[in-house]
Amino acid sequence: MNYLFTDPLGDCSPGDKRIYASILILVASADGELVREEFSAIEALMGRILIHPEARVDIRNLVNDPPDLDELLMTIDSSLIKFVLRDAALVAAVDGDYDAAELKLIKRLATAAGVKDNTLKEIFDWVNSGLAWHNQSLNILGL
Amino acid sequence: MLPDIIHKLPRDERFAYARLLAFMTRVDNELSVSEMAMFEQRLGNALLSPKQREMIRLALKNPPTLESCLEGMGEEAGRLALRDSVLMAAADGTVDEDEREVLEEIAAHFGLVDDAVEQLLQWTVEGYNWMDSGFELLNGLSE
Hints:
A: 143 residues; mainly alpha; 7 helices; B: 7 helices
């Protein structure tokens, strides 16, 4: 049976989870600021894959001392990069727009994952359909 | 993980929201990994303080009563908590009778339309399909 909203990332090593979240922080803060919406999305994604609360503290601190993307990509399990790419696209979209600096990092992730431009567009389209889906809930709730 | 409005609510309302979700996790006397992942995801979205999160996690062991959760809870927080209770109840693949009963009770408490829970369940299924299409897109990359 398929379960809702679980993810292969949930089963990866604590080290890979940390790298995953570090890359999300890097992408979200690429435009020079990490807005509350982005922070909320990253916290949700860290919760979703059950990163230990103490590890989350270290990851949050990376905002002040961002890691190097190439180093992170060299150490993460290569099969996970496509999931990092997907969630980076999600996080970058939550403040309403893809900033040029965010896009640059996303494209580097796409290259590392072997994702071509047309597939990257499909990922962006997928993100947009998710945003539309999520907004429907507010209509149902009358909010 | 998608843009939401829960993080914009006052801190005490976000705490009340999370408390209701903690209650919801124990309605069927089971807490699966899927439910826990959804619960932690929503806590992340709510941007609770570390201390509040600790209190909420303790509430998983000693869940509050539904009445105490609903008492004094704001309408916006309550409606969002209902939506996310539906997501959590469905996270293990099924919504059992006890969970459905509680969801209907919450919906009635906040004056939602009679079929609100049904609409939210349908919305949840659509979200599952959206997530699934994301997996398919990524899985296609390794073929």
